[in-house]
Structures are given as C-alpha cells and as structure tokens.
Automatic annotation (TrEMBL):
Residues 13-151 form the N-acetyltransferase domain. Coiled coil: none annotated. Gene3D superfamilies: 3.40.630.30. The lineage of its organism: Bacteria, Bacillati, Actinomycetota, Actinomycetes, Micrococcales. InterPro entries: Acyl_CoA_acyltransferase (IPR016181), GNAT_dom (IPR000182), N-acetyltransferase (IPR051531). It comes from Cryobacterium ruanii. This is N-acetyltransferase. Keywords: Acyltransferase, Transferase. Belongs to the acetyltransferase family. RimJ subfamily. GO terms for molecular function: acyltransferase activity, transferring groups other than amino-acyl groups.
Length: 152
C-alpha cells in the first residue's frame, strides 16, 4: 500500500519524503522527545534520513505501520508525524477477534496547542476504520506526557 493524502479543515496527512529530513531533524532536537519518545538520542541528521528513507516506506510495504507527514492545510511545511502501527489482535467477550492499532505522533514545538494532532488523529483513525485495517484503537504513553494524553 502507498500513502494516500488525507485532509481536513486544519491538516493534510501525506507522504513523508526525503525532502522533510531537515525539518524532522530540527524538530527531533527537542528535549521533550528524549523524555517521551523512543527516538535515538542524540538525534542526528542520518536518523532523519533513515526514518524517511527506510523505516516509513518499510511500514507501508509490510502493511504493518502507516506513517504520514502532518502538514497544516495552509502550508506545505512539515509540522509533525503521525502513524498507525498494527499491534495485534484482541478477542472480545463474545469470542470475536478484532485488529488492534496504536496511533503515535509528534509535533514540532512551535505547532503545538492548536488542535493539529487531535485533528490528524481523527483523520488517521477514520481512514483505518473505513479501510478495515483496525477495529480497535489502542493508545499508550509515557508517564508525565500530559499533552499527549490530552490529545488522545
């Protein structure tokens, strides 16, 4: 599967490409990322290149992780990243089996607090449900990451 653009009144989710590497590198210098994300630290430019050139495409090819660039509708500039990772299946009380997916995200510091991530999450989840990719959303976060918990 290839990433298709998803949009709303605030954001566009589209393909994260090599041209986004400088912005990914810049945003990933934020010490908040060290505390709450699983990114390598210190984050180097080659990490951004590997993320965009290898990790993101491999997720789409395997149909196991779908990662988009988050851009404001009014500009083409990358403001963050959002992804849906298939985490397995769960069995409900009625013995029905459900596909479970976890949405993860980050946003550059200057773009936080404006509702972009909740909007991106809605588009991501709507797409995943409509395509039959997941039946059950799953969320997790690190203790203390109040902003992400609020956005979930």
């Amino acid at each position: 599967m290839r990433p298709l653009p998803l949009s709303s009144s605030l954001v566009v989710l589209d393909e994260a490409v090599a041209g986004d590497a400088d912005r990914v590198f810049e945003y990933c210098q934020d010490p908040v990322f060290e505390r709450y994300l699983t990114n390598p630290w210190p984050y180097r430019s080659e990490h951004a290149e590997e993320f965009l050139g290898e990790y993101v495409p491999a997720g789409w090819v395997s149909d196991r992780e779908y990662t988009w660039a988050v851009r404001e509708l009014s500009a083409a500039e990358l403001v963050g990243v959002i992804g849906l990772r298939l985490t397995g299946e769960s069995v409900a009380a009625d013995a029905s089996v459900h596909s479970v997916g976890s949405i993860g995200f980050w946003l550059g510091a200057t773009h936080r607090g404006r509702g972009l991530i909740p909007e991106a999450q809605r588009r991501d989840a709507d797409w995943a449900f409509a395509e039959g990719i997941i039946d059950v959303p799953h969320g997790e976060g690190r203790v203390g990451n109040v902003a992400s918990a609020r956005a979930a």
